[in-house]
Amino acid sequence: MPDQARPAVLLTGPVMEEVVERQLSARFDLLPLEALSDATAGAVRAIATRGKGRVDEALMARLPNLKIVGNFGVGYDTVDAVAAARRGVIVTNTPDVLNEEVADLTLGLLLATVRQIPQADRFVRDGRWLKGAYPLGPTLRGRTVGILGMGRIGKAIARRLDAFGVPMVYHSRRQQPDVDRPYYASLLDMARDVSVLVVIVPGGAATRHLVDAAVLAALGPDGILINVARGTVVDEAALLAALQSGTLLAAGLDVFAQEPHVPEAFFGLDNAVLLPHVGSSTHHTRAAMGQLVVDNILAVLDGKDPLTPVAETPWPKA
Ligand code: NAP
Ligand code: 8YV
């Protein structure tokens, strides 16, 4: 039972115990969501969250002394940041510290998908090599990659594609002044002109099913989809149908609509590479993300500026 004299940080689930919880516990009681009650709510000054369960207006309304929601992750689609702003609650995320890590994973997933690396690994393990060579497969050569979302991570992916000698174009709502690559105002037009689509936009209502059946059809039977953004951005049922029918060549997916539940139909597909949302999951990068969560919470609760407030948080204050 938390000591009522001590301020508390509410955890919506485990948040990087060895970095976040260890440091915060020196100054705050750590309150698991299940222990939230009328008796404990008043002590809560901060929420630390990592995408498990929604931080919505109803939860924030129960916490009269809440000052900050520290999101472990750059994507904060499970936090209602607009409602938080309305209530004067600061929301922070963990941008930049994971750009290179997620971009590395994206290129790995792209190569694994196009060059069928997991499939070839299974071929060796199953002893099938003894009966003959692995069949020739698709290539990255001659392809143009379209990046959906030319933000911090999108740009890190683009730099890597340069090194691979792969031409790249992009779509986002606005053209980026510092990116000298062809810009498409229409995602559908871009999908028609490329044979690889890399998805790296935020999740949430505004991007839900942006990649729909029409976009997948535009990519065509030689097309490859790589999704490292959020599962919600892609119409999963349409993607399954396209992979099953061969109207799309292959997909590499790090994210799914209902994680950790992946539709079983994917498991039988040899043209899909499936990862358990591991874009940033290295000791190095997760520690940096955790530290940023701690630094944001401590700064705000000590009356200082947040380090990385999200766009919806009015900051600096008017
Ligand atoms: P960012 O810097 O904010 O970039 C987001 C990009 O998406 C911007 O170019 C933005 O440009 C574009 N965008 C936003 N809404 C759009 C829309 N409706 N239509 C088209 N383009 C849109 O974010 P980031 O740091 O690169 O991170 C991107 C996302 O990656 C995160 O939000 C998270 O969901 C995901 N992520 C996944 C992993 C993983 O482990 N798989 C790890 C880290 C991040 P405009 O505003 O001009 O449209
Ligand atoms: C994290 C992510 O794995 O930063 C993000 O948006 O998707 C990943 O880095 C996730 O947020 C933490 O569970």
Descriptive labels:
318 residues, alpha/beta, Rossmann fold, 2 domains, seven-stranded parallel β-sheet, five-stranded parallel β-sheet, 11 helices, 12 strands, 14% strand, binds NADP nicotinamide-adenine-dinucleotide phosphate, binds 2-keto-D-gluconic acid
Q: Layout of SSEs?
A:
Blueprint: E1 8-11, H1 17-24, E2 29-32, H2 38-41, E3 44-49, H3 57-61, E4 68-71, H4 81-86, E5 90-92, H5 99-114, H6 117-125, E6 145-148, H7 152-163, E7 168-171, E8 183-184, H8 187-193, E9 196-199, H9 213-219, E10 224-227, H10 236-245, E11 250-253, E12 272-274, H11 283-301
Parallel strand pairs: 1-2, 1-3, 3-4, 4-5, 6-7, 6-9, 7-8, 9-10, 10-11, 11-12
Helix pairs in contact: 1-11, 5-7, 8-9
Bound molecules: NADP nicotinamide-adenine-dinucleotide phosphate (NAP) and 2-keto-D-gluconic acid (8YV).
The site of NADP nicotinamide-adenine-dinucleotide phosphate has 28 residues, from α7.
Description:
- The chain has two domains: 8-95 and 284-301, Rossmann fold; 99-274, Rossmann fold.
- 32% of the residues lie in helices and 14% in strands.
- It has helices at 17-24, 38-41, 57-61, 81-86, 99-114, 117-125, 152-163, 187-193, 213-219, 236-245, 283-301; strands spanning 8-11, 29-32, 44-49, 68-71, 90-92, 145-148, 168-171, 183-184, 196-199, 224-227, 250-253, 272-274.
- The strands form two sheets. It has a seven-stranded parallel sheet with strand order 8-7-6-9-10-11-12. It has a five-stranded parallel sheet with strand order 2-1-3-4-5.
- The model has no long low-confidence stretch (mean pLDDT 97).
- It binds NADP nicotinamide-adenine-dinucleotide phosphate and 2-keto-D-gluconic acid.
- NADP nicotinamide-adenine-dinucleotide phosphate binds at residues 74-75, 95, 98, 102, 149-154, 172-174, 200-203, 206-207, 228-230, 254-255, 277, 279-280.
